[in-house]
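Why do we bother with a discrete structure alphabet at all? Because it lets us treat a fold like text: something you can write down, compare, and reason about line by line. To make this less abstract, here is a complete entry for Transposase. Read it the way you would read a sentence in a foreign language you are learning: slowly, and without expecting to understand everything at once.
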Amino acid sequence: MHFTETLMLEGLVPSVGTVGDALDNALAETAIGLYKTECVREGSRFRTGPIRTLADLENITPAWVHWYNTTRLMHRFGRRPPAEAEAEYYARLQAGDPLSRP
């Protein structure tokens, strides 16, 4: 069965976004790449053994997500974890800081 037929059978519509340029799934591909490199790869600190089943992935993924959001330093946030940058953003927004508005 073709992909588009499967989508139709499920009542879904294919994406009408751009294809083959810098905007084509860039964010998703980046996140998946980081997940594979930092969580799934052999030797990852999140693995306790081989990954043989979906359940094995489901067991290690929450630890990686927690680490990614609360510990991993991100350059674009001034070498701070995303959760810390997000908390500061909302505190500034609540205080009426005009620099926090998009």
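What the structure line is telling us, in plain words: The mean pLDDT is 86. The chain has one domain: 22-95.
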